[in-house]
Automatic annotation (TrEMBL):
Keyword annotations: Membrane, Transmembrane, Transmembrane helix
Biased composition (Basic and acidic residues): 12-33
Positions of transmembrane segments: 52-71
UniProt-annotated stretches for the region Disordered: 1-42
Domain of life of the source: Eukaryota
Protein name from the UniProt record: Immunoglobulin G binding protein A
Amino acid sequence: MRIRRTRAGNAEAKHETEKKGKKGREDENDQRCKSFTTLPGTPGRRKTMRSFVAYPAATLLVLLAVIETGLCRKALPCPAHCSASLTVFMPDGSTTSVHGSKAVEVIRFKEEISRASWKHLVVIKVANTKIRVPPSLETMIRLVVKKYPDLGQVLIQIIMGNTIPAGSGVDSKVLIMLGYMLSQPNYFAAIYRVLLTLGITFPSFTSPINQVMYGTHVIMLPRPFVVSYTYTINNRVFNLPRDAKKLAIYVSQHMNQFSIVAKFLTQLGASFPVDGTGRIIGFNVFNVMYRFPHAITTTIFIGSKRFALPRDISLLLTAIKHNPTMFFELQMTLEAFGVKFIKTGAGSTQAVYSGKKYDVFTGRAVTITIDNRKYDIPAELEKIFQEPKGFSVGSLLVALQEKGIPVNVDEKTGVILGITIDKVQVPFPVSIDLRFKLDNKVYVIPRDLAKLITVLENKGMPSKILSLLYTRYGVVPVRDSNGIVIAISFNGKQYKVKPEPLTAVVILGQKFMLPRDVRKMIEFVHSKQSNPKIGFSFLKALKTAGYMLINDDDGAMRSIQKGAQIIKLGMEIRIQVIYGTTTYQVPKDLMRLVKDVRSLGPKEVKDVIDQLKAFDVQVTKNGSKLTILFNSVRYEVDLKSGSVKG
């Protein structure tokens, strides 16, 4: 059994949700996208958002929870004996249960909706209700409702829950990824690709970035963001993108070093246009073209054999067709010269160049699973970073380690160099480094894990920091037979931590010892699905036991943590406050919520403060200063000036 998705709310929901405040913002790595200002139209002109109506906030809060069991997620058609079961807690507190193939349809729809782009929407009618959805979902919705008319209201609730307006026409996914960018600048090369697909455009990267564009909207960043990548070759230091022109000149003067530079540029997302003869005329990085003074060629040596590119590309592809090591060493260089590689099977790929095809053996393939999706590694390593719903570096690194694939990290810089499969070195497709900043000190993962654990133990093993190591840095918790975390590891090397004892969680008088009884606890909650308050009671019990909810990068909360002990609930929790026609997601939108409502006057501010307190969010007001504490992170707003910190 799994519990899937809870969004908190309802007028009666004052016991709700989750927070464990310790000492506020313990780490710079978790500054979420909670304080963006969106300005429709042109820069420099601010337009106040006034999409509110004068209703008490409490009357507009909703709860939607989905509990599921037995879901196999296999291809249709479902067998007649399908035992899948799913229960939806509707906004009025009632429950709707669906079983068998209906339950599978709903969960599949939930997965599809999470992958869809919400940039452009169409209006369709579902169960006599007009609703806006992505065009890619229109056919699926019509087919599901045609087959199961009674699922109409369930789909409507899921659609409404997934659509979280930013108050000024900005997709919530955009704000989530911008927050990820600000809190994790060392992942920018990967995050940038996702932001482009979401429709974000950036000004010049050669100076601090204070704002970005989303369609006609200007999104002001809460602080300047600087893009800076240092690259050293032959004792020459280049800071990109600032020194990109200088690097272009250097490469044109040292063409024999192009294959080395090409790998670095490709990991930043660069492309390389060629002329009519196949020579490279420059590189495009961060949407800016830097031309070489003259088109370049390069020379590759394999043993004593010499290959001049682009002239000898066909000969080179033939030479490496049974040599996986050389293939991965040269793949990015060949791609720069226009060679396309297409996966043809596990451990094989096809190179396409000048209309000809070449089969290449790439070595043994290993299948990893991330978020219920399977990927063949190394062939689909880059594909993971191209998923439309985004990516999780931590999930990828953990999945690789679980399959015994070492992650190669530069001990000096923390840059991920690549992975190793059967002694074959595979370069990482994007530039990511595992530097972790805490108290103005930088720790390189995994080199400094032992030092970092000592520091964290002196701090009382703060859950928030440990959760970042798990979810963003690929650190793996090691558990005993009761599920208690006794150590953390990276690449198989373990570092002991002080274990948390079994913790009692009491729900409606029933006691469970976590993490040992987590499955029993979930089964118990499922058995009480007819009780409309079970979701609230469940969250309240977790908080009372000292667990904090862990925010994932998409704004949802799927795990609880206490010290080094992290427990996956198989549940997605989203807390939403709906004020007027605008929906805010807690805690991600806490600051935007307060900042927006302040423009309507003290009564509206008080309504929001009261409702946040009903969610067990700690709120204190001192004059014009408002302080909010949620999940160990402190947020501050000045109601007069509108300034936001957090």
